[in-house]
């Protein structure tokens, strides 16, 4: 198998010139560049891209840590990232964790070993204190607010968004409110914000009015069953995604739980299903958040960008 010494010998140039051609260095005479390329073709030489990336210290690839690769909310963030990355000639690698801290650490090691240029973390299992040391080796961007000065972030003011949703329900006369989430408040800043928002509007939360472990539409159906079987059924459910809201809606339809007379539903994500089924949805502008996260990756500043939200489809 040919190597760069063979190419240098055939092209009658130095090994360093071959290296500069492989790394697309601008200061190489055109006749030498052509000679090197002709020698590579004649010797059927294929560059080792990993080795070249290590020499250059850049892979033009960014990793995206996300808990699930098939969740509509994370899909929106990823769409924003990949669209903007493509415009800047970057590839993206999706790194799903299912909130496994050990898996997440393996992905962080990819930054340390220069297999990728950096990471955008959409949601995490490890603490920022555990993640922060890896920022020494590449750019790490958060998709949630962090007070770590070294970590740039694109984020929503989720607590304010949730307060708006609960206040909307209260104005509509709902006093017995339930809501769903992916993880418990102790594990998730998002859930913790939702609990705080509820307590700001309604006061202490009754434990049976929050249900964790909701990721997909089938979980929404199970949530509908759980809340429907309570001794005191909620009159409104604030779902953590439109997919969950649709599952709750489906259960209610099957079991004569009248919507909206007996039950009002709010979702999250502003997906088409919320418009088809006519329930309100919190739009966190997640594609815009993904775009902002990648823009932060390109900058050399620890900026923090707040993305606006809207409650869409709400009735007066």
TrEMBL record:
Gene3D superfamilies from the xrefs?
A: 3.40.50.2300, lambda repressor-like DNA-binding domains
Instruction: Print the keywords alphabetically.
Output: DNA-binding, Transcription, Transcription regulation
Organism of derivation: Bacillus atrophaeus (strain 1942)
InterPro entries given in the database record? HTH_LacI, Lambda_DNA-bd_dom_sf, Peripla_BP/Lac1_sug-bd_dom, Peripla_BP_I
Q: Glycoprotein as a keyword?
A: no
Q: Where is the HTH lacI-type domain?
A: 2-56
Residues in coiled coil = none
Q: What is this protein called?
A: Transcriptional repressor of carbon supply (LacI family) protein
Give one Pfam family, short name only: Peripla_BP_1
Question: Record's superkingdom?
Answer: Bacteria
Q: Is Disulfide bond one of the keywords? A: no
């Amino acid at each position: 198998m040919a190597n760069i010494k063979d190419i240098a010998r055939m092209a009658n140039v130095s090994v360093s010139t071959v290296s500069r051609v492989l790394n697309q260095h601008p200061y190489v005479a055109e006749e030498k560049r052509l000679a090197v390329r002709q020698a590579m073709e004649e010797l059927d030489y294929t560059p080792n891209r990993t080795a070249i990336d290590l020499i250059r210290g850049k892979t033009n690839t960014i990793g995206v840590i996300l808990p699930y690769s098939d969740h509509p909310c994370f899909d929106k963030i990823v769409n924003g990232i990949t669209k903007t990355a493509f415009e800047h000639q970057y590839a993206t690698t999706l790194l799903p964790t299912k909130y496994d801290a050990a898996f997440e650490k393996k992905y962080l090691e990819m930054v340390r070993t220069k297999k990728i240029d950096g990471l955008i973390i959409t949601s995490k299992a490890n603490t920022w204190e555990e993640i922060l040391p890896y920022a020494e080796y590449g750019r790490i961007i958060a998709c949630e607010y962090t007070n770590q000065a070294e970590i740039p972030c694109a984020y929503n003011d989720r607590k304010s968004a949730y307060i708006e949703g609960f206040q909307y329900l209260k104005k509509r006369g709902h006093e017995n409110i339930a809501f769903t989430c992916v993880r418990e408040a102790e594990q998730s800043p998002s859930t913790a914000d939702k609990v705080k928002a509820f307590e700001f509007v309604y006061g202490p939360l009754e434990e049976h009015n929050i249900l964790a472990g909701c990721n997909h539409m089938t979980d929404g159906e199970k949530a509908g069953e759980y809340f429907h079987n309570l001794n005191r059924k909620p009159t409104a459910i604030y779902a953590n995604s439109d997919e969950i809201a649709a599952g709750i809606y489906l259960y209610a339809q099957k079991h004569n739980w009248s919507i909206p007379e007996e039950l009002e539903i709010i979702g999250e994500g502003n997906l088409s299903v919320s418009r088809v089924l006519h329930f309100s949805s919190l739009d966190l502008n997640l594609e815009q958040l993904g775009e902002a996260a990648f823009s932060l990756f390109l900058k050399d500043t620890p900026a923090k960008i707040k993305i606006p939200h809207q409650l869409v489809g709400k009735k007066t």
